[in-house]
Structure formats: structure tokens, C-alpha cells
Specification:
single chain, about 40% strand, about 0% helix, mainly beta, four-stranded antiparallel beta sheet, globular, five-stranded antiparallel beta sheet
């Protein structure tokens, strides 16, 4: 989740709902009519210590685990899955702080089991982490138009130079440095069905 100062003593909080499986979406701003993850937005009057409003801001997603805020005032919510129901999942969605999220995945940012993102305010580059066990990668998305992620861009994955299948989960002394390359991802979006994933709460789960 993340908070945003919207003026007049008010703060809005956009938070994820990390829900698995086949469910009913909780808002009309939905991506998949058969899944019920997403985000809600809450508004607080911080001077008075009061909750003054809340609304669903995105649904129809799966396992919205983490994400990150943007310098231009929105929340990027990430699906930690590559689940396929009647539609592919494993995308990033953008939720503006002042309204409803657009239920259209940012496909150029990749389809994989996302964790968190961080935006460099100087360049607009978006750095993405993956939660897929020991095969996870670290990614960089360079937007075609910084601040407008829906306009597309180029996705790359970090690689250590002259090292195959490096494990950065190993123990290294503090201050260790590496020479790296950014390897372009030619096809960041694969909308095909992957191997079936059994999700907690799924009607198809045994």
C-alpha cells in the first residue's frame, strides 16, 4: 500500500487485496470477471483523525501482493502469479489516487510473478522484482513516454557479465560489486495459458 497527500489535511491510502482463485470482482472497474483481487482506496482527514471515505478502485485481478507508488501520484499494483483462468494474469495495473484504476494490464511491463516496483524519479525508469523462487529476476522498464506507462516501452532483465545463472541470493560480503548487462526481453507478454496453477480458495482446488 502507499499513502498520498491530497491537500486540505487529507491523505489517501491505496491498498492491495492479495486474493487468490476464482472469485467475484468487487467493483465494475474489473479486468477479469472471474477473479476478485484488486485495490481499495481510503481517505483520511489526518488533522481530525477520521476516515472520511473509501471506495473500491480496481478488481478482477489475482494475488495483488506488492507494487509501488509513482512520482506522478498513482499506485502500481502487481499480480504475484502467472495464473490463467479465462484470461491471463501476471501483470501490473496502474491505480490513480484520485479515482478508479484502469482495468487494462500494462503488458509491456511483462507477464510474470511480480513482487514490488520502484520508480526512479530522475529518469522515470521502473525497476521490477519477481517472486518465482530461485528462478526470479530483476527487471528495468524504460517507458516510451516517462510518466505514461500505458504508452509502452522496453523491458530488460539484469544479468551478471560472464556469469551464467548467477544466484544473488547467495552470501556476499558487504560492498561486493558486480559488472552487469541489461538483456532486452523481446516478448515481455505471453498471453497463452501456462501450466495450471492451484490457488488457495480456487473452486478448482482439491
Amino acid at each position: 500500500m502507499a499513502t498520498f497527500d491530497v491537500g486540505n489535511g487529507r491523505t489517501r491510502l491505496v491498498r492491495n487485496h492479495e486474493l487468490d482463485g476464482l472469485r467475484t470482482p468487487f467493483t465494475d472497474a474489473r479486468y477479469d470477471p472471474g477473479t476478485g483481487g484488486g485495490t481499495t482506496t481510503l481517505e483520511f482527514h489526518t488533522h481530525k483523525g477520521e476516515l472520511v471515505g473509501s471506495w473500491p478502485s480496481l478488481s478482477g485481478t489475482v494475488r495483488n501482493c506488492a507494487g509501488g507508488r509513482t512520482p506522478w501520484g498513482s499506485w502500481l499494483t502487481c499480480e504475484e502469479t502467472n495464473f490463467f483462468s479465462t484470461m491471463p494474469h501476471g501483470y501490473i495495473f496502474e491505480v490513480p489516487v484520485d479515482g478508479m484504476g484502469l482495468p487494462t494490464p500494462l503488458r509491456a511491463m511483462g507477464r510474470f510473478s511480480h513482487e514490488a516496483v520502484a520508480v526512479d524519479p530522475a529518469t522515470g525508469y521502473v525497476y521490477e522484482t519477481e517472486d518465482a523462487g530461485t528462478s526470479s529476476g530483476f527487471y528495468r522498464f524504460v517507458a516510451a513516454a516517462p510518466g505514461n506507462l500505458a504508452a509502452g516501452g522496453a523491458l530488460s532483465m539484469l544479468k551478471l557479465k560472464n556469469v551464467s545463472l548467477a544466484s544473488l541470493g547467495a552470501s556476499y560480503p558487504n560492498g561486493t560489486t558486480f559488472d552487469v548487462d541489461w538483456v532486452p526481453i523481446a516478448n515481455p507478454d505471453n498471453p497463452a495459458s501456462n501450466s495450471p496453477e492451484i490457488l488457495c480458495g480456487s473452486r478448482d482446488a482439491p
